[in-house]
Amino acid sequence: MGSMLLSLVEKVQRGSERALDEANFNDVLRRNRNIDQQFPTFDDRVDAVARKGGTRMLTQKPGVWKFKVHSGTKSTTWYENYVHWKNIVDVIKDKCADRRLWKADKSGVDRSKLAREVFYNTDIEIFCICPAALYWGAAYTLTQMGAKYTEPENRRPRVRNPQQKGCLCKHAAQLFEVLPAYIGTMAAYLRKFYSKDMQQAEAAAKREVAGVKKAADYLKGREGTPRDEESPEEEEK
Known about the structure:
The protein is 53% helix and 11% strand. The protein is of the alpha+beta class.
């Protein structure tokens, strides 16, 4: 009981720590919602990026996806964008242990369900190479959120965006509009780069379930065992 309580406390503490300096996909979206207060035409500029050429995935490596995103104004210009899946192995292990994500026959985790959970629950870092990300303060705000990939940016945008509205440049914002469409890609990505982690997590979950079942069967058997009758001598005592 004590170990279970300690485990619960540790989970709460980790969740509290994450809220201070980590960000997942939805955290970044929420942080960017107020950007139109500083840049009223921001959504129109993001739409222009989509019309010019949008987003294309370039490469996948363990922990990092690389994209190119078209300029919203120049017909031949693309900007590299990166998504770093920071704690993806920890999330894989945690979600593989969640029996609600397993197949109906309980033979293992459902890879499609797992991909969605990993996509939305992994802490991420973002980086766009465009000058605007630095000039208008997105790089600084992402740094403060713990969500800036590559080198941190510690120069506050005191003139261009003093209230730090938003956290994405228009190219990264366009990437985030289409990124959920890559959840299917995430499933294939997990199979390619993290099969061993998934298999180990599944095996650990199966051992835990087997141990719980064994304990439950033992207790059930104990409950069904008739108690020994007390001896006359014990009754006299």
